[in-house]
């Protein structure tokens, strides 16, 4: 975290939410919402580039970073948590940008709390077409567990130094400004949030297929290549265009899910162009 940035905690919906902030409320607010297993500081490279123009707020979502751990039987509604943070900080209708899980949360703000956003930026949100229900043969709990859950559970058995060494090998072009909070966030992840995530963590799920045509906010959808690991497919992009032609869509074809991490220049050019049109 840069020395002139601040960090603090709020009680939102009865739980502690930690956040980082680049400004003091004297610029237009921009809220950056991280993906699953990340934390607010994973947005540091983006925040550093935009802080001269925007008051950037980077929350740690529940079960992530330094925010509250999940209690037994507790319902998790991260969109409501973010709405509470926006209201408590008196941000009005900020710009909101999210990646993956954070994009899902960002989109839900636009649908469920439309007065709390002026524009939405969605970096590879978890949007797909409904899959037909197929009866599966009985499986052991271990074999039935989704790969992302297995991976998330494995983080507890790795040290920070091991994670850092592996990430340096996997992502040699990533700067320490990104690598260090990324690895730290993995050690901060609450294991209890994994099951909640697998069960589609938000208490009031919003289906993009039945809601996107009614979204009135300016929306930027940034997607990668599904063949390289991106979530949003070309078919989903085509459907979004059909349902709401007003959505701005940028496809970066030589990257997968980690768009701004692996292609920071392309992502920032796209984001700045969109933000400029809003000013």
Helix content: 25-40%
Q: Which CATH first-tier class would you pick?
A: Alpha Beta
> Rg, please?
18 Å
What is the CATH topology classification name? Answer: Rossmann fold
The tally of domains stands at: 1
Task: List its salient traits.
279 residues; alpha/beta; Rossmann fold; eight-stranded mixed sheet; 12 helices; globular
Explain what this protein looks like in three dimensions.
By secondary structure, the protein is an alpha/beta fold. The protein has a single domain, classed as Alpha/Beta hydrolase fold, catalytic domain (Rossmann fold, 3-Layer(aba) Sandwich). It is built from twelve helices and eight strands. Strands 1-2-4-3-5-6-7-8 form an eight-stranded mixed sheet, with helices on both faces. β1 (6-12) and β2 form a beta hairpin. α2 crosses α3 (101-112).
Briefly summarize what is shown.
The chain has 279 residues and is of the alpha/beta class. 38% of the residues lie in helices and 16% in strands.
Secondary structure elements and their pairing?
Layout: E1 6-12, E2 15-21, E3 28-33, H1 44-50, E4 54-59, H2 78-88, E5 95-99, H3 101-112, E6 119-123, H4 141-144, H5 147-154, H6 160-170, H7 176-188, H8 192-198, H9 208-211, E7 219-223, H10 234-243, E8 248-251, H11 259-262, H12 264-278
